[in-house]
C-alpha cells in the first residue's frame, strides 16, 4: 500500500458510455494542467488488452496491464481518469469520483450518431436505466468522495467543469 502524499488530487470521471466523460475530462485536464487518461483510448494505444470482442466491438481490457501502466503516475497525483467502470481501480488512487448521468433519450441519440449496433445501444441504455455505473462507484468508493452530475446539455458540461474546478481549488488549499 502506497501512502505517499500527493500535491495534486486525482479525479475519476465515470458514467455509462456516451454520458460525456471524455469531453469533460479533457477540458478539466487542460484547464488545470492535469494528465488525462481515457482508459479506452489508452488500452488501444498502448495495447493493454487481450484481443478484440467482435460481438460488442471493443477490446478485452487487461486490468493488470492498465494498473501497472498507471500506478507510478497516479501516485504522483494530478490525474483525471475517465472510464465507464470503476471497481477495479485501487480505491486509494482517487480523491474525487464523478458519476455522470444522462437522459436515455439523449444517450440514444448519441449512440445513433456513433453508429452503434442495436445490441450495444440496448445494453448501454439498460446500464444507464439500472444505474449500474452509479452502484458500482458506490460499492467501490466512500460516499463522501462521490459526486453525481447531470450531463445532458452543453450548459451541464460547463457547470460540471466549474464544480470540479471549485473542488480541485478547495483540495489544493486544504492539502498544500
Ligand atoms: N454535456 C453534454 N451536452 C451535450 N453533448 C455532450 C455532453 N457531453 C458529451 N456530449 C457529446 O456526447 C458524445 C459523447 O461524449 P463523450 O465521448 O465525451 O462520452 P464518453 O462518456 O467519454 O463516452 P465513452 O465512454 O464511449 O468513451 C460526444 O459527441 C459529445 O460531444
UniProtKB/TrEMBL annotation:
This is Adenylate kinase isoenzyme 6 homolog. It comes from Dictyostelium purpureum. Signal peptide: none annotated. Belongs to the adenylate kinase family. AK6 subfamily. GO terms for cellular component: cytoplasm; nucleus. Its EC number is 2.7.4.3. Its main location: cytoplasm. The keyword Ubl conjugation does not apply.
